[in-house]
Design a protein that fits this description.
The chain has helices at about 5-10, 20-40, 50-60, 70-85, 105-115, 125-145, 160-175, 180, 200-210, 230-240, 265-275, 295-300, 310-315, 330-335, 370-405, 430-455, 480-500; strands at about 150-155, 190-195, 215-220, 245-255, 280, 305-310, 325, 350, 350-355, 410-415, 420-425, 460-465, 465-470. It is α/β, with parallel strands linked by helices. Strands 1-7-6-5-4-2-3 form a 7-stranded mixed β-sheet, with helices on both faces. The chain has a 4-stranded antiparallel β-sheet with strand order 10-11-13-12. A hairpin with a 2-residue loop joins strand 12 (about 460-465) and strand 13 (about 465-470). Helix 2 (about 20-40) packs parallel to helix 4, helix 7 crosses helix 9 and helix 7 crosses helix 14.
């Protein structure tokens, strides 16, 4: 290499690099804009309701630019895009789906985590980050009443958290070396998994992705409150055993997506012990309500589960992504996922054993998800979370009362922080069958206009064939005034839609 090239490389400055003064200036400007945005958020619409083509046109269809853009201009333009053309789940009137407002300490935590950028796949790649994740898992387990010596790890969200529990259960209960020979073993039987009709669709994906097939799922009917019928569960297990199948896992839901109900987890735990099945609790939404002093007994029964899935980006108000799996026996969790190729040497440092998170789940390279959760737990403590979760539940209960009292609203359910209801025009004249068809159509259109209008954001559920509006409050920014405003917003939109639809009926 000639001297000129040596000099070039010795003085290298990569295009992505940024000098200290420029980084400080841009960082300060961006933090100021974020602070202003959060302060003004309650006065903004929840969403602009723009079409996909409109949003796409803002970015354009040009090819990748040959030359770059200066960082100051780029950050300003991008902040404008995000602040002016997003759905804001941090808005105090966002109650659609189960996505919480992001805690400010978590926003800063993600910034700090990205600065260090550790790979939390092995301890010696991320010493303090690994220990923070270990402590975070312990604290979450403590909050929900789970054994604090459990295994666990943070993952992307509820689907992945449930997948980890599902695979641990398959490994522990299949009865043959399912990791090595899968379903092709001469000893293999048809594996069966049991879930209620209210179970989230992650179970379909798990059965599909992990080789069981969706026909392996036994859908257990629910009672009038949409809770699993445990007598039907036992009968189905007995039938499958008589048929030569291999029952291995029962899913109990702690806080269903549609209505927030919790399955009879106490009874499910007993049945799993009786039949030696893996008891997996899907508490992605509701598990953290077990921290409340007055939590129902079925939520307290999470302590009996072999594995629990829950989402800190739901009721711990962490920024996305942050899911979590807890597994009672950490050895089973490691045995489910561990591989130790010769190019890895991660199991000890300085003669001391370490925790190697790539052996506890499907990822090798893992981001520092735990920091934003750990910071928030330290920031407000258990009592802070008990207060916020309890407030969310009380606000949902108040919404149920308001809907129940309003002559043009019909309240359906309130469980945890989810309330369901629908708009019903006064003096509706149709017969029962026509009436229900029309009300489904009417409330579907109400929801569409509400979501696109930006005044508030709720979602929907189907209860006994009825299309209902669904508000899920996992939002520390929501107050009583926000809740009290919703019924009149719904009624106003409902009257307009009803007037438009009625000539056709």
């Amino acid at each position: 290499m000639d001297d000129s090239k040596k000099e070039t490389y010795s003085d290298r400055f990569a295009p992505l690099e940024m000098n200290t003064d420029a980084f400080r200036e841009l960082g300060h400007e961006l933090v100021d804009r974020v602070a202003d945005f959060l302060a003004a958020l309650p006065e903004r619409p929840v969403t602009t309701g723009e079409s996909p083509s409109k949003i796409r046109s803002l970015l354009g269809e040009s090819p990748l630019p040959q030359q770059g853009t200066d960082a100051k201009t780029l950050l300003k333009e991008t902040a404008n895009l995000l602040f002016d053309h997003s759905l804001f789940n941090g808005h105090p009137k966002f109650w659609g789906y189960i996505t919480s407002s992001a805690a400010p300490i978590g926003i800063l935590g993600d910034f700090l985590a990205a600065t260090i950028n550790p790979n939390v796949g092995a301890w010696n790649l991320s010493p303090v980050a690994s220990e923070i994740e270990r402590q975070t898992i312990k604290w979450i387990a403590e909050m929900v009443g789970y054994p604090v010596d459990c295994g666990g790890l943070l993952v992307s969200g509820g689907n992945m958290a449930n997948f980890v529990g599902f695979l641990a259960g398959r490994y522990a209960k299949a009865g043959w070396d399912v990791r090595a020979i899968g379903q092709s073993s001469p000893e293999a039987k048809r594996l069966r998994v049991y879930a209620s009709a209210e179970t989230h669709t992650w179970i379909n994906k798990a059965a599909d992705m992990f080789g069981l097939g969706t026909d392996s799922i036994r859908w257990i009917q629910t009672d009038a409150d949409l809770r699993m019928e445990t007598d039907l569960l036992k009968a189905q297990i007995d039938n499958d055993l008589k048929s030569g199948d291999k029952p291995f896992l029962v899913v109990g839901t702690a806080g269903s997506v549609s209505t927030g109900v919790t399955d009879p987890l106490v009874e499910i735990a007993k049945i799993c012990r009786e039949y030696d099945l893996w008891f997996h609790a899907d508490g992605a939404y509701g598990a953290l309500a077990a921290c409340l002093p007055d939590a129902e007994s079925d939520l307290k029964a999470l302590s009996e589960a072999d594995s629990v899935a829950l989402d800190p980006h739901k009721w711990l108000y962490a920024p996305l992504e942050a899911g979590c799996t807890l597994v009672r026996d950490s050895k089973i969790l490691r045995d489910t996922f561990s591989y130790q190729p010769p190019y890895y040497k991660f199991d000890e440092v300085g003669g001391e054993p370490t925790i190697v998170y790539n052996e506890y789940g499907p990822q090798n390279s893992r981001g520092f998800r735990a920091l934003k959760v750990w910071l928030a737990l330290k920031h407000v403590g258990r009592s802070g979370y008990e207060r916020m979760i309890s407030d969310d539940i009380k606000l949902a209960e108040r919404l149920y009362q308001l809907a129940d009292q309003h002559p043009e609203l019909q309240a359906f359910s309130h469980h945890l922080s989810i309330t369901t209801f629908r708009y019903v025009p006064e003096a509706l004249k149709q017969t029962h069958e026509e009436r229900e068809t029309y009300l489904n159509q009417l409330n579907t259109e109400i929801l569409t206009r509400l979501q696109e209008g930006g005044e508030a954001f709720v979602s929907n559920a189907m209860i006994a064939g009825k299309y209902v509006l669904r508000a899920c409050i996992v939002n520390f920014r929501t107050n009583l005034r926000d809740i009290e405003a919703l019924p009149e917003i719904i009624v106003r939109i409902g009257r307009i839609v009803h007037a438009e639809l009625q000539p056709n009926h």
